[in-house]
Design brief:
This protein has helices at 17-33, 40-65, 93-117, 121-141, 146-165, 168-188, 190-193, 208-216, 220-242; strands at 13-14, 69-75, 81-86, 197-200, 203-206, 249-250. The chain is mainly alpha-helical. It has one domain (15-245). It is globular, with a radius of gyration of 20 Å. The longest helix is centred in the N-terminal third of the chain and has 26 residues, at 40-65. The model is unreliable at 3-13 and 247-251 (pLDDT under 50). Helix content is 66%, strand content 10%. The two termini are 36 Å apart. The strands form 3 sheets. A two-stranded antiparallel ribbon has the order 1-6. Strands 2-3 form a two-stranded antiparallel sheet. It has 9 helices and 6 strands, in the order βααββαααααββααβ. α3 (93-117) packs across α8 (208-216) and α4 packs antiparallel against α5.
Length: 251
Amino acid sequence: MNWQPPSFPPHRHRTTQQQQVGQLIIAGALVIFLPQLPLGNYLLYPFTILTTWFHEMGHGLAALALGWEFERLVLLADGSGYAESYSPADPGALAAAFVSLGGPLGPSVIGAALIAATRRHEWWRPALYALAAIILLSTLIWVRSMVGFVVLPLIAAALVAIALRARGGLVRFSVQFLGVLGALSMLRDWHYLFSYSGMIGGRPMLSDTGALEQALWLPYWLWAIVIIAISAAMVGAALKFALAEDGGPHR
């Protein structure tokens, strides 16, 4: 009888739930505290543009869902932006409110989806590919500003490069970071949420909560609280889903 050494399965590293929580905390700390560091705002600038894109795409896709025309999305150098859509002659208060609500909830929807995608390793790279594809498609169809033309394709290229070449741990952390970025973007927009109006591109405009008050009468600050509560519920559900089990083995 010929003796053969025992064979063992290839070694794989498994990310535990504790490690997943730790990585999410690190991602959140980067989003919150990086702007306080020297040059931190410059490092986060592409992601500021990305969260504005999340927001404005929320408005535009809400308009499309109602059968309106999503005309253009403009991203400005100061990190603000706006989406223009055309409605029927008399769209109705509920429809107008729905489009207004789509903006502030857009980052939370995308953030929750990305956080949920960290649950299984099979989803990590497809999540980055899908986000990159949506960014590029929206740039071709709707984006109408130089900032958007320059920054968004660079972000998409970086996401594809990470998905193609990075090891599993970095891919997962990238998805986590983007998810937390979307989930916490309301902190950046806190003042805007609790304002009736603001200046965007040098023009006075109703805030989203101001537009909700105009459409549905309840005060803008109450709509801000409702938006925060809905966002927190979505992100909480995504975290519960993502942490329900280990994300699976990865090399």
